Amino acid sequence: MVTLWLALLSGLAGIVLAACVLWPLRRRGRTGFMAACLSLGIVSASLYLLVGDPRAAQQPAAPSMADLRQGVEALEASLQREPQRADGWALLGRSRSELGQNTAAADAFARAAALAPDDAGLLVEAAQARAQAAAAKRFDDTALQWLQHALTVQPDAERAAWLLGIALRQRGRDAEAVEVWSALLPRLQPGAATALEQQLAIARAAAGTEAPATSPDPAQRNADPLLSVRIALPAGFDPAQWPQATALFVLARAPGGPPMPVAVRRYPLDGLPSSVTLSDADSPMPTQPLSAHARVEVLARLSRAGTASHTEGDLESEPVIVQLPQSGELQLQLR
């Protein structure tokens, strides 16, 4: 039935097209004109019946769960051959999650996070998958570290800040969650901001704090320099020989503590400074400002990939431990 109707439509289209093309011949005789149009319509319908395919007018079926499972198997086979593909492991994690295989999804995302430790979006996905796989649906210490590092490498990562606040609240660290969410609030759209304000009110009540009269501006944090650093590039350094993604990181971290910095500045290749100052305004976490540390370990890194983690071919200074506030200017030589 579908084939017949489509054949009739094809014939009608042929008649209309023929009428448009042969219209100038109408003056030579209406009978011939009508016969020619009808003939072309019949030819169109006949051709459709011979070679047409009614399935072309049907919408393709949505992929089934069986198709997804086959795709996962093919992806796993590919990752056996190329296990260093972080994007492949992330795709596997998403696919496993779609299949409801939360533990397998978390494992795949963990592999991806190990291969791309400075991909903020991937770290957030990995942390969320890890919490989803946990029996209590809570963020464990590993997930917490991933979220904190995601905010370090991408301070404006809204989802990382939102989930970090949840992870902190799960640990009873409500005051810290309030600080993280308060910094996030001004960047949200009205609808999302309203939802976050409700959670902020609950967190403030749990922490025993009151809402400020006006929302604090992160730019108003103590910007007095606590540390001054002079960066020395190698002799003969030529920026033209470095990738455009290259970036200079000057960071301070707690001696013997986690690798996440307590203050960091990032500069693009075309804006490399000779001197840098660090202050509380450069602290990625409001709860751990630079001024809260008596001593910090300072280093500079010129990263080819533009990421904070060390990669092959980077230039890096020797780490130096200094007292805060530091007097004078610290010299860091990139090698």
CATH topology name of the largest domain, in short, is Serine Threonine Protein Phosphatase 5, Tetratricopeptide repeat
Point out poorly predicted stretches.
1-9, 15-26, 45-51, 56-60, 214-221
CATH architecture of the largest domain: Alpha Horseshoe
Q: Kindly name the structural category.
A: alpha+beta
Number of strands: 8
The share of residues in helices is 40-55%
Radius of gyration: 32 Å
Largest sheet: 5 strands, antiparallel
CATH C-level of the largest domain? Mainly Alpha
Query: In total, how many domains does the architecture comprise?
Result: 3
Count of helical stretches: 10
Overall pLDDT, averaged? 79
Compressed to H and E, one letter per element, the order equals: HHHHHHHHHHEEEEEEEE
User: Strand percentage, roughly?
Assistant: 5-15%
Going by CATH, the homologous superfamily of the largest domain would be: Tetratricopeptide repeat domain
Protein model, in words:
This protein is of the alpha+beta class and 335 residues long. The protein folds into 3 domains: 2-55, no CATH class; 84-207, Alpha Horseshoe (Serine Threonine Protein Phosphatase 5, Tetratricopeptide repeat), CATH 1.25.40.10; 227-333. Helix content is 47%, strand content 13%. It has helices at residues 2-22, 30-51, 65-81, 86-98, 102-115, 120-133, 141-153, 158-170, 174-184, 190-207; strands at 227-232, 247-253, 263-268, 275-278, 295-303, 315-316, 320-323, 330-333. The strands form 2 sheets. Strands 2, 3, 5, 6 and 7 form a 5-stranded antiparallel sheet that branches. Helix 5 packs antiparallel against helix 6. The chain is flat, with a radius of gyration of 32 Å.
